[in-house]
From TrEMBL, chains A, B:
Subcellular location: Membrane
Record's keyword annotation contains Transmembrane helix: yes
Keyword Membrane on entry: yes
Anoctamin transmembrane domain ranges (all copies): 177-639
TM segment ranges: 185-205, 211-235, 289-310, 330-351, 375-396
Protein name: Calcium-activated chloride channel-domain-containing protein
Keywords: Membrane, Transmembrane, Transmembrane helix
One Pfam family of this chain: Anoctamin_N
Organism this protein belongs to: Aspergillus pseudoustus
InterPro entries: Anoctamin, Anoctamin_N_fung, Anoctamin_TM
Membrane topology reported for the UniProt record: Multi-pass membrane protein
Sequence ranges assigned to domain Anoctamin alpha-beta plait in this UniProt record: 22-144
Amino acid sequence: MSLTPNYKPAEQAPAPLLDNLGVDWVVHYEFEDLDTSKAIDEFESLLHDLHEANLETQVRHGHGASLLVFIRVPRAHLGNLVHQSRIKDWLYGIIHELPAGDEGTIADAETPAEALRSVYHAVTWKKSLGGAHITPKHGKWKNIGSAFPLHDQAANAELLRKWSRTVLLTAEDLDSIRALFGEKVAFYFAFIQSYSSFLVFPAGWGAVSWWYWGSYSIPFALGNCLWAIVFVEYWKIRETDLALRWQVNGVGVLKVTRSKYVWEKEIRDPNTGELVQYFSPYRQFLRQLLLVPFASVASLALGGLIVVTFALEVFISEVYTGSLKGYLEFLPTVIFSLCLPSISGLLTRIATRLTKYENYRTQDQYDIAQTTKQFVMHFITAFLPTVLTAFVYVPFGAKLIPLLSPAALRGDSADLKHTIHIDPERLKQEVIYLSLTGQVLDFGQEIVLPYVKRIVLQKWREYREQHSTVHHKRDVSQATNQVLFDDPNESAFLTRVRNEAEAEEYNVHEDTLEMCVQFGYLTLFGASWPLVALGFLVNNWLELRGDFFKLSLECQRPPPIRSDSIGPSLQGLEVLSWLGALSTAAIVYLYRDGMVEIRVSSLLLTLLLAEWAYLAMRFAVSTGLRKILDSTLQREAAKRYAMRKGYLEAASSEGSPRGKLRVRFRDRVSVYTSATDPPSPQAEEMLHEAPLDSERRFWSGTSVLEDGVRIIRALGKTSQKAEKEL
Amino acid sequence: MSLTPNYKPAEQAPAPLLDNLGVDWVVHYEFEDLDTSKAIDEFESLLHDLHEANLETQVRHGHGASLLVFIRVPRAHLGNLVHQSRIKDWLYGIIHELPAGDEGTIADAETPAEALRSVYHAVTWKKSLGGAHITPKHGKWKNIGSAFPLHDQAANAELLRKWSRTVLLTAEDLDSIRALFGEKVAFYFAFIQSYSSFLVFPAGWGAVSWWYWGSYSIPFALGNCLWAIVFVEYWKIRETDLALRWQVNGVGVLKVTRSKYVWEKEIRDPNTGELVQYFSPYRQFLRQLLLVPFASVASLALGGLIVVTFALEVFISEVYTGSLKGYLEFLPTVIFSLCLPSISGLLTRIATRLTKYENYRTQDQYDIAQTTKQFVMHFITAFLPTVLTAFVYVPFGAKLIPLLSPAALRGDSADLKHTIHIDPERLKQEVIYLSLTGQVLDFGQEIVLPYVKRIVLQKWREYREQHSTVHHKRDVSQATNQVLFDDPNESAFLTRVRNEAEAEEYNVHEDTLEMCVQFGYLTLFGASWPLVALGFLVNNWLELRGDFFKLSLECQRPPPIRSDSIGPSLQGLEVLSWLGALSTAAIVYLYRDGMVEIRVSSLLLTLLLAEWAYLAMRFAVSTGLRKILDSTLQREAAKRYAMRKGYLEAASSEGSPRGKLRVRFRDRVSVYTSATDPPSPQAEEMLHEAPLDSERRFWSGTSVLEDGVRIIRALGKTSQKAEKEL
């Protein structure tokens, strides 16, 4: 059973469809709303900037009134960029071996991602750093819709096919993702893989507990909390381990300054002699403290809304006895669901303004701050309803609901008090619904729906284009006609590029957040239905492949950004494992004996003891794990030692160490050292093969500027004409 | 007012007393209980081993039946050892600049401590590592009482004199301690300095609170807890900062294997090609788990004893009305104090056996494990009595004490119940007594008492030696006579060395522990008497100087061991700041309103809220501090960057980087770069001056072996004779 039936045709198609024709990067320039002359000016300026940065260009028309500017970095220039980037890594202490060579050295990239990262820098960095400073949707380039690298279809298909037949991803699979998409994406897949493997324990233990003791059992609660602690502590070590393996440890320091960063002054660093932009950390910290009122207001707003919805729902279902009860019961939830997007949209806008105000120097820090805020909001919407059910509605509902009754509102309280019976099963039902149905719906919304939308849009566009081409065919000159119609050899390739240009950007934080929420459900409410982990385990098998499907076929290929962690999610996981211990203790205490008797002092004592047990266990687990698992870190240290020793020997035996060092980075195998399989296809460097015929032909057109201008004139006119016709 | 009147004479004495005559290390060989022939064999073997390790020797007699073997490392050999040590640092990634030079390079030590560390390695390391493998009190060398370097009296006096006139230690003072005694000792002084400076806040705030609100005030409680969190988080950053400044970050990895380490197998590391001793970390972790039953038993034993003592004391003072009450009241405490040493001795012996069984590879790890156990025991004896007073005796005493009364023991409980009144002031009194009187007594016990003991012992020995020399003067040959009587030029020097040979070893962990206990008092019970911090502040001014006095005049100079932290005390501090938040909350809740009404559920709620507030504050403080204080770490990173950049430029402009790199470690000023004063005397390298006349004379004696044998014969006989005479 292959998961990717839609992929087959691409593979059976002729080779050019799979090949990227040597294109390194694509800029999607849209001029729908622009004057033709303005558009031509901007296009000329774009080409000028790109050529100035030593980049080769080619142009074709895109969907609608848009241009696709293809960028290729000359091989020698690219090799030098890779070398310069490594020198920078060495200077900032990310790697410890000085890459051999001088200013003009041309290095081979170890992975496609490394090469693409240099291309990304060449396209986006400031001119003073040697880039073309193309910033999509910002400032001078606000008409550039996107700038992205092209997918390596063969490699993607190979990986997806391999995974559809296996249960677990291997270390080599993760290395392959890293080689294709960079470390930031690879860290997410490493996380979901580790997490899913760990899920086997609560799934099995949950099944056993459920069979023997049912819900709310102490053995499962203990096992589950301990498991959560072990997993979080394990992941911390694993993350460091991967960061060392992928040589990205501490990579945050060499990220470039965001173009929107505001600084107070520029200081020349007395040690390095570099100009450093300075913004007082005190001021930044003070600004960050605004997070406290924001989080409070957001929590109150969301929480209040949830409480009101909940109260209304309870009121209607338990107290209201009028007509249309069956429909009215769902009304509050429906209204809430309808309001939620606009409220969280508003909160997100405030959060974004706050993050901008906090003024982070690098895009990385900015992303982390923004994601943290989104996490907080997301956690509230995800968990608060269930928390209310578990700790307010079920235990205290019998006392609270009569207060909502018409009798109580009128003032006579003797009424109705004994007619209310709260079903303690409600928590379990809610957990089952949210964890299982919710996961399936999410999957559909996240992967199936966009896929269907994309197919429909494509069909519609094809239909529309067939009609509109008939119209403008006669209006334009012969030369323009040539650039408006695709060369049959390129047409499949161009269709693919046009689709990729319109595809979504991949947001790795969202996928990570989704896994964190799942982890949260398990630790917070797992005790109420031990089978929940089993459901998650099955879901995650699909989720992992679905996410890769989405990444490789429904989204643009992300720029291969480096990162040494899954970011703020790690803190989220820690907080959840702590809240989980408290919540599990409270749930077991409250629900175990069917709510017979609740004493506040015993509940508080349970919470206090659970918290101390949590702190003690976390300390023991983190100490123990670090002791047992440090072999990987030790191996890393030994490797570093061996490298230094080799360097020392070379230096002392040869006089100049240069000759020997060269060996090191021609050694492309290093990513796959521990692999027993032969290196997978993407290791065969896509960027360094002899240009194919079609590729040579694609890049041979020399009249890029004229071609572009012709397209703008033709399509600008066409769209204006089309508007007139409508 | 000078703190060190006793130091004056040494300074006014002629120069040779201050000078160490080029002696790098002293081995104190004791043969009191040995056959003369056995002693001669061992001595010969000792000299053989030392000469084999390329060390020069000289011999003089010590106090009683003992030999002082003086060791000097030839300057060229020492310089090479220093270079080799730096190469090793570089290989293991402690430093990032490859020291220039080849196998035979002779490097200047940056500090006396660096030179002495190489001497220490030459004397103690295994023969396979190039050392003489002298292991005092262990195995083959169990008759060697100690092996130690000599104090640099001029530098010590200079520092002590400087500090007696200042309030705060500067960064340069810490650098000087590091230069004299190594990083492990310097870390303790850095800690007490940071801690004492931080004490200014609770001292001031405590005085204000005491004036306005008296004891048990909420403002002081909040301020005190927050202060504790800020201090611990600050110290963590400060520690890393210092470790980077002193280039010892991660130095634990290159410590050598303990001679008592037992390994399962030796593996040749595939990466480094070195032989690595392997002992399963799983087994070690399992053995470490024995700590849990040990800690439980120790807590129970100590705790039980304290509880019984306490109960007896209460019983006698509150219930007993018989004769001799005034004396009997103190009996339990006296008995407890008498038992305590033997009980904690027993526990320490068990702890030591446990630590040995845990089988650590390096002495560092062993020390840490042993210290951790001692900390636990020490904390129990230090804090449990006050905890009992605060949380059992005062709040519940009125209910519990009647149970101890004779009436209750007989069975009729109606009696006595209303005659008991517990004074809530008792907690305050106990805290005042323990924190103030206790500190003064400790100081006396730790510094004054040993000083007096040493002086008395010295006088007694002088008296006795004057008498005994009269006896054996005639028995020995002329040659022996020569070696038994000191050259007048050397006699002052030899007297000093003999005293140092008999002095205690300095245990830096004990001093650190003492500060932790003080910190614990403040955080746990500070709320009951806010002035306590003021007392501590005054005490610490004296304590710091007293500790340095002890280190430099009453103890042997410790081998300059490296370390990158104050060790397990850091975890102790964290635990204490957490317990402090809980304890402070409980004390304020219980005592604020004079024990009118105690509700268990409110108490538990207070504890839970205090704990959450603690966790939240710790997170906020650690995030904020790391943000604001990372400038020092950034400066470090910038320095590293600058070094790498310089290296890169040198490499690319000159072909071979060697010429330039040499500059770096001739640059002895680097420890004092930020000092505005001229370098203090100890920076003038003691080891590299032209040998003085007296020094040349001291080392000119070539008949080391014969001299030693003569001394053994003479003193061995003498002592046997002396025994016969007695």
